[in-house]
User: Fold Shikimate kinase from Fundicoccus ignavus.
Amino acid sequence: MILIGFMGAGKSTIARLLGKELGRPFIDIDTEIEKNLEMSISEYFAQRGETAFRQIELEVLKLALTTERIISTGGGCIETAEVRSLLKERQDVIFLRGSFDLLYERVTHEAVASLRPLVNQKTKSELAALYESRLGYYQEVAQITIDTDDLTPIEIVQEIQQLVHN
Assistant:
């Protein structure tokens, strides 16, 4: 299972809960990248830029796709054409869709915002435009879309389980 969605959609939380519920390991692509780079994504962004980051993200995702893990992707991975191509080949891509206002609220809390380079570089209207520009990509590659605004993480996991097992 591969979870996609904009930053703040809950991909990491849901992957962790799903892994526990299903007894399967999970991988958070962003965490894996930080482990491999031995620095935060924010630091890497500042030093090398987004293009270099997206290439590393692609390589880590390719490796993760060869495993049976539940995968939590980064919100922007979908901007890379090769990532979209890889995900279109899959039958287990789940889009966690939240409204922009709720996601914005989640990602702009001080402790969380410091971990998200784009939040610190863009205005709210620029982030809204980024959200809108990515929506079509998420929808293009996902087999399942779950509207998460009114659901708790446990309810999202239950809905995924229901949809996947039917």
